[in-house]
Each structure stands twice: as C-alpha cells, then as structure tokens.
Write a structure and sequence with these properties.
By secondary structure, the chain is mainly beta. 10% of the residues lie in helices and 44% in strands. Strand 8 and strand 9 form a beta hairpin.
Length: 169
C-alpha cells in the first residue's frame, strides 16, 4: 500500500511539473516544427485548421507586470508578460486552453503559460462552430526574454503537437 501511495504522489508531481505549476515559467520542448505555421504581428489573426476543425486566434495587448493583483504574486523570473487572446471557432470544435500558448525568447528558451489567472483569465473549454472566448494568458519570464521573442500557439486537433502559428513581440 505504501508503494502505491508513493507511486501515486510521484505521478502527481510529474503531472504538476508538466503543467508548469511549480514555477511561473518552465522550459519545455517545442512542439514539432511546422514550416507552414504563419508568423504575424501582434493584433493579427492566425487560422488553425485540421480536418474541418477550425479556429481563428488573435493575440494582442501585451503587458509587462511585476506583480499579479489580488493574490500579490511576484514574478519569480522577472516579469509577468500578459497577452490578450481571442479565439473564434469557425468550424467543428476547438479545445481551448492556456497551455496551448508558449513564449519563445530570442535565445530559443521556451516558457509555458504560468497557470496563474490574470483578469479575465482564459480558461480551458471546448468551443463549437460560432462560439468565441477571450481572456488573458501570462508567462513568468526574465524581462530580456520578451524583446526579439514570439508567442506560439499549438495547432488544432491532430496537429496539436505542432506549432500552429506565431506572433512577433
């Protein structure tokens, strides 16, 4: 019984590390590269499409914050870089979640979404054709990671392990 409990706790710890909950920024491996993934400016829209599952994603309104209001959490890596995300499902379904987004620093270091709710937070949900959702996603990064960096969104459906698009910072 004791071994089962220890194994369960170890699995839980690995899961939490994978979701980036222990620190605001975690380095992770990039999804498989996709040479067809568009790179656009902030405020522009990227269309994700896979077998009829389509979503239009717009990233805008970048902000640097040192502290998260409310819980007064200080960024451990330097600053919270917060973006506004708008997602419109234009066909089929789209499973929206903050961990679909990463910040890639100019030096190639990749930071996953922090897991902290910024107001209004972008929550995990399934969108069907015609539905939309907006919210904020934040990254705990060194200030130097922002200049020359980019935001990445993963693809949709079977392409979720591939980069779907990028926004220049």
């Amino acid at each position: 019984m004791r071994r089962l409990i220890i194994a369960g706790l170890a699995a839980l710890a690995l899961l939490l590390i994978g979701w980036g909950r222990f620190s605001g920024a975690t380095q992770r491996v990039l999804p498989k590269q996709n040479p067809d993934a568009p790179t656009v400016n902030l405020g522009q829209t990227v269309t994700l499409d896979n077998n009829g599952n389509r979503a239009q994603v717009t990233v805008s309104d970048p902000q640097r914050r040192g502290v998260v209001p409310g819980p007064n959490l200080t960024a451990t890596n330097g600053v919270y870089f917060v973006i506004s995300v708008n997602v419109v499902c234009t066909g089929g379904t789209y499973h929206m979640k903050p961990v679909n987004f990463s910040l890639i620093a100019g030096n190639g270091t990749t930071y996953q979404a922090s897991g902290i709710d910024f107001d209004p937070p972008l929550k995990t949900l399934d969108l069907t054709s015609g539905q939309s959702k907006s919210g904020k996603v934040g990254f705990d990064v060194p200030g130097s990671a922002i200049d020359g960096g980019k935001i990445q969104v993963n693809g949709v459906g079977l392409d979720s392990a591939r980069a779907g698009g990028f926004w220049r910072l």
